[in-house]
Amino acid sequence: MKTHPDTSRQSRRVVAAPHRLPLVGHALLLARNPLDFLASLPAHGDLVELRIGTKPAYLPCRPELVQQVLLNARVYDTGGPVKEKARPILGNGLITSDWADHRRQRRMVQPAFHATRIAAYAEVMHEECSAHADTWTAGQPVDVSDAMQALTARVTARSLFSTEMAPHSVAEIQRSLPVMVRGAYRRAVDPTGLLARLPLAANREFDTALGRLHALIDGIVGDYRRSGEDRGDLLSALLAARDDEDGGRMSDQEIHDQVMTLLLAGVETTASALTWAWHLLASHPEAEARLHAEVDEVLGGRAPTYADVPRLAYTQRVFTETLRLYPPAWMFTRMTAEPTELGGHLLPSGTDVLISPYVIHRIPELFARPAAFDPDRWLPERAQDVARGSYLPFGGGSRKCIGDVFGMTEATLALAALASRWRLRPVPGTVVKARAGMSLTAGPLPMVPEPR
Ligand code: HEM
After folding, report:
1. Ligand 1, atom nearest to 156 Cα
2. How remote is the CA of residue 400 from the centroid of ligand 1, in Å?
3. Which of 137, 209, 405, 408 could be a cystine partner for 179, CB 3.0 to 4.6 Å?
């Protein structure tokens, strides 16, 4: 019998993920071992149907399908269980706003990430990275995860608020932000919604941390409003922003929500990737030696500045490759706002779509020897072979990470500043395993600094 070619193609392309259980579907697998499970799915088909409980969710496993989702933000709007639960915590900022509101918000926030502003934030990055290099002592182990989190919290807080309130606000953010991020993730992945209502110590801690952050941000926004001064920082840029379509400004509440969003989105992501970069460098001595050679040649012993970033090409390739192997935003979600077709399959309105950079970055047809750490795959002559849409650590389309250049600049300066003075050695016996939480982290990672 002759099979219609379109039909056979369609049935091969949309497949049900294996190991589905009654009632819970794939929820347990996703909770327990999401990375291995998700990475096994592209072998089954181009678009894989999972069940979270009894509700279907779709994982596109080809770059063209991912692009179709990301480039059509009106149909594939923000949403899904994670985003819904984030709204009470983050308010209505860039991450949580729906399509129509997002367009206005993005127009308003974008100028705060203009290249001239990044140059000013890079001054803070330069100071903080050099100061951090002074805090290490030869032979005394540091938890690199904590160290990178502290560094990126300081950089983000000082880029946001450069005022005399900075020392207090930096300390508060360092203290409360990790508690808030952990609690937000626990709530996001709790399918029952009950966890948040139980009288647990973790919930009390979360409420306190969130309350402190809200109070801190309110206080600072009020202070800036009263002074009316442009301090060259991110918050001043947000306060000065005018919508070029209707001339409006953001209200205090809108600014508050954007600040909260920037803290949540900008600190742990960059810190996790930096932590992975140190781990990868320590386990690839050849790459480490090349990075050292570059920082020695470009910096000659001084601390790196914004002007050095373009010359730190290998350092940037190391970070780019780190983001491929361990993308901090390992999965994010969309929800269809109307019925639509994806990979030959009709998705009704309200369908969850899961986008996983981790999955796409490890498909062998897209990246040769995908598990290998090979920074040179990002040399310009080789990078041109990378298929469009197959490298997405910062997402894509109109909701692409607004802090991509900020994060890349910060990471390049941090790697160069620290590697020009220190080599980090693993502590024998430490087992490193990727943990998929709000970001893809390495967990606690003790390493020993050796002076270079
Ligand atoms: C290596 C570091 C970073 C990674 C891997 C990363 C990754 C991402 C990804 C994948 C998205 C898109 C999520 C989606 O489409 O649902 C995103 C959005 C976002 N990121 Fe980043 N990010 C990083 C650093 C930063 C930094 C430093 C900031 C701010 C200072 C930031 C602020 C944001 C914001 C506000 C959004 C929402 C943008 C929008 O919807 O318009 N990120 N990020």
Report:
1. 30
2. 7
3. 209
The alpha-helical segments, DSSP class H, found in 284-332 are 285-299, 313-325
Task: Check if the beta carbon of residue 264 is closer than 8 Å to that of residue 90.
Answer: yes
Look at residue 383 and tell me if it is in a domain: no
Number of domains the chain is built from: 2
Is the CB of 47 within 6 Å of ligand 1? Answer: no
Residue 232 counted as domain residue: yes
- C-beta of 95 in contact with ligand 1 (< 6 A): yes
Q: Is 403 in the pocket of ligand 1 (CB under 6 A)?
A: yes
Q: Is 106 in the pocket of ligand 1 (CB under 6 A)?
A: yes
Looking at the structure, tell me whether residues 188 and 81 fall in a common domain: yes
How many Cβ atoms are within 10 Å of 131's Cβ, its own excluded?
13
Nearest residue CA, atom 17 of ligand 1?
A: 401
**How open is the CA angle 175-176-177, to the nearest 5 degrees?**
105
Nearest-atom number in ligand 1 for the CA of 105 is: 41
Burial 196-220 (b: 16+ CB within 10 A, else e): beeeeeebeebeebbebbbebbeeb
Q: Over the range 389-408, which residues count as b (16 or more CB within 10 Å of their CB) and which as e?
A: bbbbbbbbeebebbbebbbb
Q: Which domain holds residue 32?
A: 1-70+330-368
Asked if 312 and 295 count as a contact pair (C-beta separation under 8 A), the reply is yes
- Cα 53 to ligand 1 centroid, rounded to whole Å: 28
Q: Whole-model pTM? A: 0.94
Query: Tokens for 185?
Result: 């993730």
Over residues 324-373, the pLDDT tens digits come to 999 999 999 999 999 999 999 999 999 999 999 999 999 999 999 999 99
